[in-house]
Amino acid sequence: MNLGVVGLQWGDEGKGKIVDYLAKDFDLDVRFQGGSNAGHTVHVEGKKYIFHLIPCGVLNKKVVGVIGAGCVFDPEVFFNELNDLKTYDLDIRHRIKVSKFCHLIMPYHILLDKIREESKQVIGTTKRGIGATYEDKYGRVGLRIGDLFDAESFKEKLRVNISRKNHLLMDIYHAEPLSDSEIYDKFMDFADRLKDMVVDDSRYVHEAIDAKKAIIFEGAQGALLDITYGTYPYVTSSHTISGSASIGCGVGPHQIQDVLGVVKAYTTRVGLGPFPTEDKEDTVLRDKGQEYGATTGRPRRCGPFDASVVKYSARLNGVKKIVLTKFDILSGVETLRIAVGYTNGKDFDPFIAQDLTPVYEELPGFKEDISAIRTFDALPDEAKDYVRMIERYTGLVVQYISIGPDRDAVIVKK
Ligand code: GDP
Ligand code: IMO
Ligand code: MG
Fold first, then answer.
1. What number of other Cβ atoms are within 10 A of residue 209's Cβ?
2. What residues contact 219, with CB distance under 8 A and at least 6 apart?
3. pLDDT of residue 121
4. Which residues of the chain have pLDDT under 50?
5. In the beta sheet, which residues pair with residue 364?
6. Torsion 63-68-72-73 (CA) sign
């Protein structure tokens, strides 16, 4: 069976930890959208890994990682990440495949993202060039990994692109122009180092399906950052919901049999944009949960769990079962709160998200350290009530509960 794993809030729900935990039962781990804006953290045997582009399932030694066509690809980040893994004695070059259809994040995309963020167009992006690269993809002027292998034609496409971008850089942003020869040389070197890993991802994944291999699809970001259904314009530039897994590596929707949603036991968001349950005074969740971005180090905004947000996201993803993460962080919070609706809106709606006023239900908290518990029954009664309350107000089944960053810190509930 093939399984999608997606975030149901604003990203950083703990997808990395869950994909790594589940990956032992899979042969392929496919990233299908986004790029190095993602930061997926995994803790195994006392070591901490942060993955931006490489699918994190590769920490399981039989898993092949696939970077699918829906991703945007920064070769610099990719090779740095491969090297970082080598410092942990993990050489995965024979277990990583990259789609020739991925659009390349070029230095001018990163530059434009930074310049825009520092001028008027402020979204609070990760400044990794994501939006500018997808703009070129949909504007039909982008450069793809497959283009790298025809050097002459790549040179010409690059020249045209840089000349366009230099107009923009100089005339609109009053910045220095870029030189194409330096970028060309750098990318030819990347091409050489990449060539053995480049595949037609759709063919590769279909061959795996035919060979009865099991595939996990690793989502990045979260449903509320989806380019269409998220809190637009404060979103990322890709489709972050489960349907994206199909177009992001060339498989049919029916070939992904199930989708699991990952949900933090409270809510966080990094970057700008509406967040109905944000607690601007919070320091407890941020400090205890170490809520700082894995990619940019920025402090994450924190607040209580919002059942309507999760219900909205679950629908977009066709999700019925969820994983509740970071539950251990709530221990010691005297009164737990869950937003169960809004005073001025029936359901979550991104068009009015900035005006929604949550209605909270309160529950007594639990004091015990729950990080060593491995069964639902052994949880304190207050903790069980919190989980049941989430199930009641979201209409979803909590299948797993994560109670620590380590791989084995998981309670299987059903
Ligand atoms: P992702 O982007 O969805 O993969 O999530 P991130 O890696 O950006 O952020 C999740 C953070 O929470 C990481 O630092 C994880 O190591 C950590 N984490 C994940 N699950 C748990 C958990 O159940 N308890 C605790 N304490 N930390 C967790
Ligand atoms: P993972 O996969 C949390 C946010 C940025 C910004 C917006 C647009 O680790 O959950 P972008 O650089 O994509 O153009 O930024 O999206 N963002 C994330 N927030 N987790 C992520 O990924 C994110 N990737 C992008 O903070 O608000
Ligand atoms: Mg993250």
1. 15
2. 4, 5, 6, 7, 15, 32, 33, 240, 242, 244, 245
3. 74
4. none
5. 335
6. positive
Q: Which residue, 42, 37, 33, is CA-closest to 14?
A: 42
By the 8 A CB rule, do 52 and 77 touch?
yes
Domains of the chain: residue spans and CATH: 3-92+200-412 (3.90.170.10), 103-194 (1.10.300.10)
pLDDT at residue 120 in the model:
78
Q: Which of 326, 374, 379 to mutate to test the pocket of ligand 1 (most atoms within 8 A of CB)?
A: 326
Strand, helix or coil for residue 179: coil
CA distance readout (Å), 87 to 57, 72, 92, 197:
18, 25, 12, 20
Residue 220 alpha carbon, nearest atom of ligand 2:
2
Protein residue with least CA distance to atom 6, ligand 2: 125
Q: What is the rounded CA–CA span in Å between residue 306 and residue 338? A: 6
- 267-304 pLDDT, tens digit per residue, is 999 999 999 999 999 999 999 999 998 888 899 999 99
Q: Is 404 in the pocket of ligand 1 (CB under 6 A)?
A: yes
Residue 129 Cβ inside 6 Å of ligand 2? The answer reads no
pLDDT of residue 262: 99
pLDDT in the model for residue 42: 98
**CB of 135 within 8 A of CB of 246?**
no
pLDDT of residue 296: 85
Contact 26, 3 (CB under 8 A): yes
Q: What is the CA radius of gyration of the chain?
A: 21
Instruction: Report the greatest alpha carbon distance in the chain.
Output: 67
Name the residue of 37, 41, 126, 330 to mutate for ligand 1: max ligand atoms within 8 A of Cβ: 41
Tokens, residue 249: 């590596």
Q: Could you say which of 20, 29, 40, 136 is catalytic?
A: 40
Question: Considering the entire predicted model, what is its pTM?
Answer: 0.98
The answer, yes or no, to whether any atom of ligand 1 lies below 6 A from the CB of 265, is no
> Would you call 58 helix, strand, or coil by DSSP?
helix
Tokens at 218, concatenated = 């690793």
